[in-house]
Each structure stands twice: as structure tokens, then as C-alpha cells.
Design goal:
The chain is mainly α. It contains five helices and no strands. α2 crosses α3.
Length: 72
């Protein structure tokens, strides 16, 4: 599963809108939409912030593992 699909899946699991996630990440909704669509690469800072928001590992977001658990 591509990383953009993972961030959409995680958002939907939490019942959040794109606008709500964008607000949490301090960006505009259209910019976040492009990340979810895969039309823009996720910068490292956004990967880290999404990892913190969704409480999953960056490796999970990148599709390198199926293990969601973050290192503590």
C-alpha cells in the first residue's frame, strides 16, 4: 500500500476530515489533499508530524512495515 493511501486510511479510521488534519499540521486543506492523492511528496517534517498525530511509526507510513507501533 502506498504511503498516500496509508495516511488517508489512518485519517478515516479516526473519523477526521482532511480539513481537520490540515489544521493539526498547520497547513491548508488543498495542500494536505495533494499529499493524500500522491501528487506531492511528503517532506520529512510532515512524515514526522503525521507519525505523531496518528501514533504510528514513520516506517509504517512509508510502507516499509506492517507494524504500526512507534519506538518510544
Amino acid at each position: 500500500m502506498a504511503r498516500y493511501q496509508r495516511i488517508r486510511e489512518l485519517r478515516e479510521e479516526r473519523g477526521m476530515t482532511q480539513r481537520e488534519v490540515a489544521e493539526q499540521l498547520e497547513m491548508l486543506q488543498p495542500q494536505y489533499f495533494r499529499y493524500e492523492q500522491g501528487s506531492r511528496d511528503l517532506p520529512t517534517e510532515m512524515l514526522i508530524r503525521l507519525s505523531e498525530l496518528y501514533e504510528v511509526s514513520v516506517d509504517y507510513l512509508l510502507g516499509l512495515t506492517e507494524n504500526r507501533q512507534r519506538a518510544r
